[in-house]
Amino acid sequence: MNSEASMPLAENLWGYGKRFQFVDDSLVRRFGANRQAVRILDVGCGTGKELAIPLAEIGYQVTGVDPHAESIRWAAASAPLGAKFICGMLCDVALQQFHAVIISEVLEHLDDPESLLCAGLDYLADNGILIITVPNGYGEFEIDSRLFHGLRLSVVRDAVHYVLRKFGRKPPPQVPGSYDTKGHVQRFTMARLRQIFACHGLRISQFRSSVFVAGPLIGHTVGHFDNFVRFNAGLADRLPPWACSGWFFALERDGSGGHPMPQEALRGIRER
């Protein structure tokens, strides 16, 4: 396996290709290109198909944990060499030190997100990186999702799929990032996240916005077009963070060393 270049994950409406690249870039910047030497704990990994498994495929030693049995069954059945998956809570993972702890698209589902963040830090090596990704609580994704479910447009979607099946045009099966369908209970702002990170002695070393729009209304219309997907992901890099649907953070403990975040990126984060 070539440790000099990562295998990119195909981009989609939610910016999972960017997220994968962000994680890999952050780890290579911190630990070098020998990915086989880097141990990762992915907390709330779901099926692993969008992050844990692709990271293992390019060489990282990945441990994923998730309490949802169906998601873990799929992950374990698909796991490449170097990856293992545990069905349970974080406390079910033997306490040990990882170079990176990932909590991706998880905190927004929890009533007490800081408890999980704090517990995750117990597994992080002193010079390690904590990767957090969350949706913008007031971005397009959340607004779009509330409209979609409030107007019960899922009924229309299901009717369209039914008609397609009747005419022999069954939509291709999709393996989700998780089979757990619990909704969001947190709406994060950048200011709240900065406060949480500071309270836990963390500083932002790398940051990137995910995509501009990403909700189900977009997903069931223009979100199927590859040109739009690429435009959507690229546009988020040119917009202020408050205008985007989600955010990626690489965090280090204060005083852990590493490269300071570029001032132009910090200015963008401070806008909200």
Please provide a brief summary of the model.
It contains ten helices and seven strands. It is an alpha/beta fold and 272 residues long.
Q: Assign the CATH architecture.
A: 3-Layer(aba) Sandwich
What is the mean pLDDT?
Answer: 85
Main beta-sheet strand count, sense and barrel state:
7 strands, mixed
Please give the share of residues in helix. Answer: 25-40%
Distance between the termini: 42 Å
- The total of beta strands comes to 7
Q: Helix count, per DSSP?
A: 10
Shape type: globular
| The top level CATH class name | Alpha Beta
Could you give the order of the helices and strands? HEHEHEEHEHHHEHHEH
Low-confidence stretches: 1-5, 257-268
Give the CATH topology. Answer: Rossmann fold
Radius of gyration: 18 Å
> Order of strands in the sheet with the most strands?
3-2-1-4-5-7-6
Whole-number tally of structural domains: 1
Q: Write the CATH homologous superfamily.
A: Vaccinia Virus protein VP39
Structural class: alpha/beta
Approximately what portion of the residues adopt beta-strand conformation? Answer: 15-25%
